[in-house]
Amino acid sequence: MTPFSNGSCSSFLFLLLAWGHGSPMELRNLEYRPVRVRGHFDHSKELYMMPRTMVDPAREAQEAGRLSSSAESGAYVITPFHCTDLGITILVNRGFVPRKKVNPETRQKGQVEGKVELVGIVRLTESRKPFVPENNPERNHWHYRDLDAMAKLTGTEPIFLDADFESTIPGGPIGGQTRVTLRNEHLQYIITWYGLCAATSYLWFKKFIRWAPTM
């Protein structure tokens, strides 16, 4: 995270325009796009996505194939961020904190004040997956990204960024908590190819079998 300097969030304009007027395909293409924003946090409206473990590629590579993990459980801290140049407020995942540090009173040193500049990775809303609990806004427990619900509760736009690792400050959440998830389109491929196979078989039957002379 770097101190604020004069400038604009013009690199963010394309994102905002696409979010407001783009097609679903255009919006999907925005995911994982890095953007730079300038403004300040509103720590009074923090949200917590939990339980979560910290993204640590080295540890995850060492523990690949194991049935258990040594990773500490905690939460992602989602904080409204007001983009001063554009006059809008978005949601920023500042990063991971262990469970004992979820309460902001235990990490006052990391509650950065004033204007800052950071780079974040665009994330889209999520649908609840099977076996994932429902979000509980009353208790401020969020199990998946429901951007409309999060935005409504905090009074922000439904725009969400994962702050990069460089945004981390001593005593604050650890940034860089983006897990890249590729869309699974295997089912669509299966349906498509089975459909083509069925159509081809029908045409072959109609041409060569149905009208074949009987002995």
From TrEMBL:
It comes from the Eukaryota. InterPro entries: Surf1/Shy1, Surf1/Surf4. The keyword 4Fe-4S does not apply. It is found in: Membrane; Mitochondrion inner membrane. It is a multi-pass membrane protein. The chain crosses the membrane at residues 187-205. Residues 1-22 form the signal peptide. Keywords: Membrane, Mitochondrion, Mitochondrion inner membrane, Signal, Transmembrane, Transmembrane helix. It holds the Pfam family SURF1. Its main location: membrane. CDD domains: SURF1 (cd06662). Belongs to the SURF1 family. Component of the MITRAC (mitochondrial translation regulation assembly intermediate of cytochrome c oxidase complex) complex, that regulates cytochrome c oxidase assembly. This is SURF1-like protein. It comes from Erinaceus europaeus. The gene is LOC103112125.
